[in-house]
């Protein structure tokens, strides 16, 4: 049973997250994932370096013009900026909603050779209470679906959908807006058509589970993959093909009650992810939900590469990060252009939007 105050709180969080022209920064890389990203650039993966990097992101000037929410990781939500404020407080004071990744990662699925199930339901109710007290107002759980010769199996889709729905129901009970993230990976040599078929089956399974577990669709957000050919596929669909396939797939599967769709970037090159989002928003179709972004790599890659752990590079890295945030903000409204992409950086902090 959801009470009136909870409804108002959930609705107001959704409204802020889906403010037109803003999207979500996923800065919730687990220790293993951030270690991989740092390692590639020879950055020492210490707790202090992770803190300094996340601080660089959330203190980028004018970030709140383009970003409505930031997804933090368990370690990060407990960390503080140089001036002693919790990161959740830093972003809240900018009008950005703090969120938290609450899954404990994808593990091997028992009884299946190559598939994974996301874990983290045990003790989740208690963890959500703690995250709320640390300032979080929304949460995120990612299920990982791999495309292969005989996978995904219906068993894998159902198990992951069930876990996503259990998580989402517990979040709503705790007055946290759940971001439901079923990611069909782009790893592999599959075609666009196969990605479409698997994404459709995944989303059908997810919405069936959400319904049966009484998740209120109006108080959640969906974070899906775009429908793409596999990274090793010889097929290279154009931007328009991807945009059309993705929107067609979503129209078939996502109920209009869902208040917003925020895509993951999934390993696409940053500019391509932006172009795909922009093309979807330019399709001549009336859509039931706003389409925005919740990118990690496609927002952060150029900035991380510039920073490389050197304090002297903070300002330049923030400029690159803001540039991607600004381009994606434009794409979420179909305003992204080559001219905008080629502007070197967000020069003036106030008049750029
Ligand atoms: C798919 O990953 C999510 C979106 O990131 P991309 O835009 O880079 O695809 C992202 O939120 C992801 O869930 C987090 O980075 C955490 O991932 P791990 O693997 O550390 O749980």
Which architecture per CATH? Alpha-Beta Barrel
| Ligands bound to this protein structure | 2-O-methyl-1,6-di-O-phosphono-D-mannitol
Total of helices: 14
The CATH topology corresponds to TIM Barrel
Write down the CATH class.
Alpha Beta
Which percent band covers the strand fraction? 5-15%
Classified in CATH, the superfamily is Aldolase class I
* Element-by-element helix/strand order: HEHHHEHHEEEHEHEHEHEHEHHH
Any overview of this molecule?
The protein has an eight-stranded parallel sheet with strand order 8-7-6-3-2-1-10-9. The chain has a two-stranded antiparallel ribbon with strand order 4-5. The protein has 353 residues and is α/β, with parallel strands linked by helices. 48% of the residues are buried. Helix 9 (192-212) runs parallel beside helix 10, helix 10 (239-253) packs across helix 11 and helix 11 packs parallel to helix 13. The chain has helices at residues 4-17, 31-39, 47-58, 63-66, 74-77, 87-92, 124-133, 154-173, 192-212, 239-253, 270-282, 297-307, 314-331, 338-342; strands spanning 23-26, 67-72, 97-101, 106-108, 116-118, 138-145, 177-184, 221-222, 261-263, 291-295. Residues 347-353 have low confidence and may be disordered. The longest helix has 21 residues, at 192-212. It is globular, with a radius of gyration of 19 Å. The chain has a single domain, classed as TIM Barrel, CATH 3.20.20. It has 14 helices and ten strands. Strand 7, helix 9 (192-212) and strand 8 form a beta-alpha-beta unit. The protein binds 2-O-methyl-1,6-di-O-phosphono-D-mannitol (5MM). 2-O-methyl-1,6-di-O-phosphono-D-mannitol binds at residues 26, 28-30, 33, 71, 101, 105, 142, 183, 264-266, 295-298.
